[in-house]
Amino acid sequence: MTHVVTDACIRCKYTDCVDVCPVDCFKEGPEYLVIDPDECIDCAVCIPECPANAIYAEDDLPDGMEVFLQFNKKLAPTLPTITKRKAALPDAEQWRVVSHKLSGLNIAL
What is the distance between the alpha carbons of residues 64 and 16, in angstroms, rounded to a whole number? Predict the structure, then answer.
């Protein structure tokens, strides 16, 4: 099993989760993070660290968020690893409360 970064991360990109990951499984896109399912050891330490509540265990994904399992799997091999915390995106707080942000990205799943 793996953990999955969902919609709540898009256009926020808080990186608190990166600091606690013992295996550096987070990958960084321009407006989001994903978890590399081949690297994730299912430790769950990232879940409580995410201020946007964007991370779930694969088996605990909320209804309608199953697409993010594929999103993480597909994008992880194409993105660089992020190992240190960075500032969130400038308008992260505004985007934090917005849902259904995947449609705003130009990514074919």
Answer: 25
d(CA 20, CA 78) in angstroms, rounded, equals 22
Q: In 8-106, where does DSSP find H-type helix?
A: 16-20, 67-75, 92-95
CB 57 within 8 A of CB 44: yes
* pTM score of the predicted model: 0.94
Nearest Cα to Cα of residue 38 among 27, 28, 49:
27
Per residue in 10-31, pLDDT (tens digit) is 999 999 999 999 999 999 999 9
Which residues, 6 or more positions from 3, have their beta carbon under 8 angstroms from its beta carbon?
35, 40, 42, 44, 46, 47, 55, 56, 57, 58
Q: What is the CA radius of gyration of the chain?
A: 12
Closest CA to 82 of 19, 37, 4, 12: 19
- Which tokens is 39 given? 């690297």
At 74 the three-state DSSP class reads helix
Residue tagged 């992880």 (tokens): 76
